[in-house]
Structure formats: C-alpha cells, structure tokens
Amino acid sequence: MGNKILFVASECTPFVKTGGLADVIGSLPQALTKTKKYDVSVILPFYKDMIDNWMDQIEKITSFTVEVGWRKHNTTLFRLIYRDITYYFIGNDYYFSRNGIYGYDDDGERFVFFCQAVVDTITELDLEIDILHAHDWQAGLAAAFAKIALPTLDLKTVFTIHNIKYQGIMQKDAYQDLFNTPPEHIGGMEWNGLLNCMKAGIFHADKVTTVSPTYAEELKTPFFAEGLHSMITDRQDDFVGILNGIDLKEYSPLLDPHLPSNYLNAGPGKQKNKEILQQKLGLTEDPEIPMYVMITRLVEQKGLHLIQAIIDEFLQEDVQFVLLGTGDDEFHRFFYHAEERHKGKMVSYLGFDEAIARQLYAASDFFVMPSQFEPCGLAQLIALQYRSVPIVRETGGLKDTVTPFNEYTQKGNGFSFSNYNAHELLHVLKYSLSIYHNEQKWHSLMRNVNDSHFSWQESALQYAELYHSLAETKSTVQRSEQN
To answer: Does residue 14 have a cis peptide bond before it, meaning omega lies within 30 degrees of 0?
Structure first.
C-alpha cells in the first residue's frame, strides 16, 4: 500500500475556519506526517475570505476547465507549502468569491463543483495519490467521483463523518443537471428520493470513520443518525470511530499569547487570569467564587434549553456564569435578559472573540457542555488543557474523554450526567460546587485534570493502521456491482 494521502475538505486552520472540522484538517495531516509513514497533502476551496491573508504567499500552478453538468467553469489551482504540508486551493470566482463559506442557496452546486474539481486536479496534475480521504458532506462526492471517474487508478478512499446532521441534500433532478456521472450511478447518491452528499461518501468509500467511538455506536441508531442509520449499519464492517485530538502547542496555557498570565498547571498563574477577567467583565472580584463558563454556538444541539430551565436557580448559589457565543435569536434574547437579571454574577458575551475565548478557558474553574449530541467535541479537550473542569452530558466524544470524578476512588477528570434532563444538569452542577469547596477532593480532581492530554499522536496511529488495512480492502464499486 502506498503512502500518499490527499485530504479533501471545505475548511482548514489556519486558512479558514467555522468549526471543529477546520481544526482536524489543520492538525491531523501534521500528526500523520510526524509518523514518518505518510506523505499528506490537502485540497480546499479558495474562498474570498482567504485572499487578504494568503494571496501573496501562494503560487498559481495551472488553470483548467471543470464541467458541472452542461456548465464549463474556468478554474485556477493554487499551491502553498506550509509547515511541510502541500496545500492545493481550487479557485473559482463564481462559486467561492463570496463572503463566508456556507449558507448559500446553491451550496449543493458549489460543492458538486468542488468535488469534480478535486478529481480533475488529480488528473490534470497527474498526482500520485494512494488514498483520498474526504471529510463531511462537502467532500462526500469527491469519494464518489473518484471511484467512478478514476477506476483505472488503484485509489483507495476514506470518508469521515464529522457531524451527520448536515448532509448536503439536493433535489433528485440535480443529478442530470449538475453531475457528469453516468445515470446508473445515481443509486449510490440518492436517499429517500433526494440526492444526499453524505450518503454518497458513506456508500462509495472503502472505509468510513467518525470522530469518536461512542458517536460511531450512536450513528447505528435512528435517534442520532438523522435517517442514515441503515446506511451506517450496512457499512459497519468498514466503519470505525477514531477520537479526535487537539494541537497541544496551539492550545497551551503556557504559550498562549492571549493570556495575561501564562501557566502550566492549575495554581497561582491560572488564578491570576480569573482575577483579571472578573474585573474586565464586571463580575464580583473574588477569587474564591467558582466561575462556570460556556463557549458554544447558540443552537439547540448544545443543550441550551437545559441551561434555560435551570440558570436562575443555579445562580442563587455563590457562583459566576459566563457565556460566549453566537447563534439563534431565541438564545441571544434569553441570555441577554438572563444577564440583566443577574448583574455581577453572569455575563453573556453574544459574539465570538478568540482572545476572549482563550481567556475564559484560562479563568474558568468549570467548563459546561450539556450537549444533546456531540460527535467528538473539541471544547472539552481545550478546557482540560487550560485546567478547567468539564461538566458534560454523556454523549459522543464527551463520554469518551470526560470520566466522572469519583470522590471515593479519587479517579476522574470531570463531571457528567446521562439523560437529557435539566434537573440532572442542575444536580451535577451543584455536586461540582460541593467538590470545589472540599479542598482535598478538589486537589485530587485537579491532579487528574492536569494529567489529561488528548493529542493527535494516538489518533494518527489509529488512522495509520486504518490506511494500512486498505491494502486488503475490495473496492466499494466492485462490491456494489457484485451485489
């Protein structure tokens, strides 16, 4: 089996980011390269938002035409070598010269173009690729098109589900209008009478992964799989959950330039950050008051209805609560008025600021993450790095990374609750408060937090094993034809 891997994705730090997908694509290729076993490159759209920061550093290498149905689009390919990884950027003014990267009515068409351009790039540059690794629905069709259009290449494919809630759904007649694949292949891309880019990736890839072992099991059930559970179970022999990691240098409280006081482990340095932030945010300036923090998108998935139900009762305790995030208007209004009711104890920062986010991780005693579902979650991993104790619901990667503290065995690095229930959340919040005020138990908990590290090293080794196993994998196209 060869060692040349091409990552296909819609976002990647440090170039463009809307969420955790970008962190994964920014970090995993680096970790794989460090194993000395793989030569990894990455291909992305070239968005308007990237021009100011990167245009003077990239080189134009070629131009070619990409066909999207009857349309012929001039396409420019750029390249940049950054931290020993080769990045390719697909430029097209019609599809990508817009503000932001998602949320347009023609997103389906835009990423049909992107995936077709990826396959055309492989041909145009005669790239030697052994494995194409596509990520989430925006890249799902790249796995499909590669299997269909490049059958003479001994190319293996991997598709990773980062969040199955978003699937890239289009009307079925878009197949004839936008796709250049023969009509007999529509079955591998259609689901419930619609075209589904997520399904296309799952169906065509040789191996399918997701971002935590627990989420992999959850996706086999109707509640979590958003209608695709039967598709997942059909592929379960080729399906595995590999836990995400984080870049421990990027998220280091010892090196973070955003912090007023750098530190390694919980202690006076961390406490100094808390005191400064209390003053900055207009909270009661008392280092003994525990600070609870949420940094999140303000959407239902993140458990905000649970917070709505219990926040007034919880804030009767001698605690502070800070929320940072942006999203749905319902939650903007609620948290704005909640702050008004609890001046000096609660702050709702309705927006996003990376520097403030880092300062909140550093200042907080507890990090609250009561998600309805969470494929992996990176925030709880960052919180642990900044020595903030996570309080999570037992779902997806939250269950895989946060072990509930047992005051009798002194084991565990956080707190958790099982059912999606506001009173269970309130109970665990109050329990965490009791541990905070017990010096001996709090010391044991913080020792466990200090010892919690979730780097990409172990995950990269698991991906390396998966890539190696592809040498024995039969093509999904061959399987479908035989069936």
So the answer is: yes
Strands 207-210, 291-295: pairing kind: unpaired
- pLDDT by residue (tens digit) across 149-189? 987 778 999 999 999 999 999 999 999 999 999 999 999 99
In tens, the pLDDT along 314-331 reads: 999 999 999 999 999 999
Decide: 110 and 100 in contact? Cβ < 8 Å.
no
Helix (H, G, I), strand (E, B) or coil at 339: helix
How many other C-beta atoms are found inside a 10 Å radius of the C-beta of residue 20? Answer: 22
What interhelical angle do 354-363 and 268-281 show, nearest 10?
A: 130
Rounded Cα distance between 301 and 304, Å, is: 8
Say which DSSP state 217 is in: H
Cβ(168)–Cβ(196) below 8 Å: yes
Among candidate residues 157, 138, 126, 152, the one with its CA nearest the CA of residue 61? 126
Q: 195 pairs with which residues across the strands?
A: 170, 190
Taken in order of first residue, the domains within the chain and their CATH numbers are 4-245+457-482 (3.40.50.2000), 268-454 (3.40.50.2000)
SS3 category, 317:
coil
